[in-house]
């Protein structure tokens, strides 16, 4: 399918702009600051965005794979936070029906347009499934290892959040030794959002491998930032939290 430049993106943005005319501009500005994005924020609620998707567009009458190509283009071209969100809404509805090989070709490239934690977390939801899948595990792991040493903070963040996303959503886990190495490499990273990812990855690693992860945190107790530490102990019991907090103070 030949994709007309900006044609579909323009239709999406025209729709979002029209709906945003009555939105609260102050709330939109607050949301923009909260998310930490440089993208345009229309200030549309999640329910409105889902409604926009359900109402459809003139171009969403193809096969799922063809529509995925279009939403992929929209994701890359849209100047707005909500415009890119529509691509994730599409994925949420149809990812099970898109070949893994197609997702592997397209989704890792989405990190190029990530500039905020919300899109980063949304992307991790699908990358972690590729990491879990036997046919895409090896290549996605190679990509995560490359991102782990990237100069782009969002790629570094992605390399950790995608390891487990939420461990409860997975039936198989990446080998502990692999995740430990990637986490350790970013343990002293200076970026706030990478440190949040360190905490997230340790928390979910604990859910998958409690003994090894607890020992890792205990061993590196002085190196783990306060941002990461608060997050990584969230799922522990009170006795474990107290043990680590006490050692951290000494």
Description:
- The protein has 250 residues and is mainly alpha-helical.
- The chain has helices spanning 7-19, 25-35, 46-55, 64-77, 81-94, 100-106, 117-132, 137-147, 153-164, 176-185, 192-208, 210-219, 226-232, 238-249.
- Helix 4 runs antiparallel to helix 5 (81-94) and helix 7 (117-132) packs antiparallel against helix 8.
- The longest helix is centred in the last third of the chain and has 17 residues, at 192-208.
Helices and strands in order, then pairings?
Blueprint lengths: L6 H13 L5 H11 L10 H10 L8 H14 L3 H14 L5 H7 L10 H16 L4 H11 L5 H12 L11 H10 L6 H17 L1 H10 L6 H7 L5 H12 L1
Helix pairs in contact: 3-5, 4-5, 5-7, 7-8, 7-9, 8-9, 9-11, 11-12, 11-13
Give the structure's gist in a few sentences.
The radius of gyration is 20 Å and the shape is globular.
Defining traits:
250 residues; mainly alpha; 14 helices; 66% helix; 0% strand; disordered N terminus
Topology as a string of helices (H) and strands (E): HHHHHHHHHHHHHH
From the alpha-carbon coordinates, what is the Rg to the nearest angstrom? Answer: 20 Å
Q: Alpha-carbon distance between the termini?
A: 63 Å
**Shape descriptor:** globular
Number of strands: 0
Rounded average pLDDT:
95
Beta content: under 5%
Summarize the biggest pleated sheet: none
Low-confidence stretches: 1-5
Helical coverage, percent range: 55-70%
Report the oligomer.
Answer: single chain
Estimated structural class: mainly alpha
The count of helical stretches stands at 14
